[in-house]
């Protein structure tokens, strides 16, 4: 059972979120539409970026699309420069990290991260998301690119989902521009603002052939959509290759309720009523349906076939009403031989590993460590995955980067 602090915070969170959802529902349609979009709301606590290494991670913000509010925050761990391949680096006037020209640099996988918030709130720059991404960047030894997608109802479906795929295409462009830079053409390529189009951190340290997508809550639905689009695109995304996805507390729902959707309908943080309101705000009125492809991963006819999906790690919590549908999706993936382990956390609540007030709990820290073990497994000689089995139940499977071994059942 969640402790008193979690219960109290849940009450406060639900009060604030229900008020936001209701106020957005009551706003006239004419006042909602905003093609440029917004990526955060005034009440969101924002963490400033810092291009110098603070607590082992440097961050910077990028406005990725001149035609919308789509933004990115890049998290670069200091392990990218703390190696024999990169003995020194330049520090420009603004005081941030800049890769030294003409040197070899350590390459890290790139992880696209999609925050939660029921499609209507949250931000890639929020205090909680910033802290979570810093933790993931350090533990997983990856470059995290947190996506500031456009929020509903100002931008209806499929806006936020298309933003996710647009970032994947942006990554592919960055990888190709970096190649141009190595051929001596970098200084001659500029964007519409007159600035160099090449993002130096990604050019120096990003390995886009090892791209992982991580989505939290509603962000998990976006991640799953982007992965599907990447599978359909195939080689058109080269050199970007999506090798895995991580779905944390997916925001899945459907018209036929599951056992958990009945038993836990009034669960902590996000309950079923709030979830339905969020989907009403996201989907165009004529498309509203709880069995919409973006909402229900188990409907027939979704493309591409499940067997084409990359390795998928799913994280669920005992007291999350959306857990059963996420578990069922993971099971369907395993049925077609997709590597799809499941982490099920006892006494956990929706987004326990990412909410700002719960980030420092032992369970949140253990969850991040478990995710990092799965992500990093192929880069270790030890072929045994050891997870925090005292805090969660694991359905074993293999790492996204492995093809020849399984997690031994009962490993602890």
From TrEMBL:
Concerning InterPro entries, the annotation shows:
AB_hydrolase_3 (IPR013094), AB_hydrolase_fold (IPR029058), Carboxylest/Gibb_receptor (IPR050466)
Which stretches make up the Alpha/beta hydrolase fold-3 domain? 111-353
Taxonomy, superkingdom: Eukaryota
Q: Name one GO molecular function term.
A: hydrolase activity
PANTHER family from the entry? Answer: ARYLACETAMIDE DEACETYLASE, CARBOXYLESTERASE 11-RELATED
The family annotation for this protein states:
Belongs to the 'GDXG' lipolytic enzyme family.
- Protein name according to UniProt: Alpha/beta hydrolase fold-3 domain-containing protein
């Amino acid at each position: 059972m969640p402790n008193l602090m979690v219960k109290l915070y849940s009450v406060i969170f639900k009060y604030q979120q229900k008020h936001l959802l209701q106020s957005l529902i009551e706003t006239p349609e004419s006042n909602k539409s905003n093609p440029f979009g917004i990526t955060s709301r005034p009440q969101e606590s924002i963490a400033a970026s810092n291009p110098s290494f603070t607590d082992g991670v440097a961050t910077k913000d990028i406005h990725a699309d001149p035609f919308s509010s789509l933004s990115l925050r890049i998290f670069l761990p200091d392990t990218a420069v703390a190696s024999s391949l990169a003995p020194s680096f330049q520090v420009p006037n603004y005081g941030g990290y800049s890769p030294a020209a003409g040197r070899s640099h350590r390459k890290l996988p790139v992880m696209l991260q999609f925050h939660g918030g029921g499609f209507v709130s949250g931000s890639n720059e929020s205090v909680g998301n910033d802290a979570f991404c810093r933790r993931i960047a350090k533990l997983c030894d990856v470059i995290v690119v947190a996506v500031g997608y456009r929020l509903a109802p100002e931008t209806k479906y499929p806006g936020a989902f298309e933003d996710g795929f647009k970032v994947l295409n942006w990554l592919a462009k960055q990888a190709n521009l970096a190649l141009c830079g190595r051929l001596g053409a970098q200084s001659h390529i500029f964007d519409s603002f007159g600035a160099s189009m090449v993002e130096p951190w990604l050019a120096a340290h990003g390995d886009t052939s090892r791209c992982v997508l991580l989505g939290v809550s509603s962000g998990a639905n976006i991640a799953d959509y982007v992965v599907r689009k990447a599978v359909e695109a195939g080689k058109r995304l080269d050199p970007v290759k999506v090798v895995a996805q991580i779905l944390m507390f997916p925001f899945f729902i459907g018209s036929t309720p599951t056992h958990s959707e009945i038993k836990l309908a009034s669960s902590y943080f996000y309950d079923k009523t709030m979830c339905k309101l969020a989907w009403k705000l996201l989907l165009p009125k004529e498309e509203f349906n709880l069995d919409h492809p973006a909402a229900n991963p188990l409907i027939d006819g979704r493309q591409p076939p499940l067997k084409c999906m990359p390795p998928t790690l799913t994280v669920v919590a005992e007291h999350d009403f959306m857990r059963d549908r996420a578990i069922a999706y993971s099971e369907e993936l395993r049925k077609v031989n997709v590597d799809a382990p499941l982490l099920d956390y006892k006494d956990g609540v929706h987004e326990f590993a990412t909410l700002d007030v719960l980030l420092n709990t032992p369970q949140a820290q253990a969850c991040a460590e478990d995710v990092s073990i799965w992500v990093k497994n192929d880069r270790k000689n030890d072929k045994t995955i050891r997870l925090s089995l005292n805090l969660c139940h694991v359905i074993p499977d293999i790492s996204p980067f492995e093809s020849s071994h399984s997690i031994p059942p009962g490993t602890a």
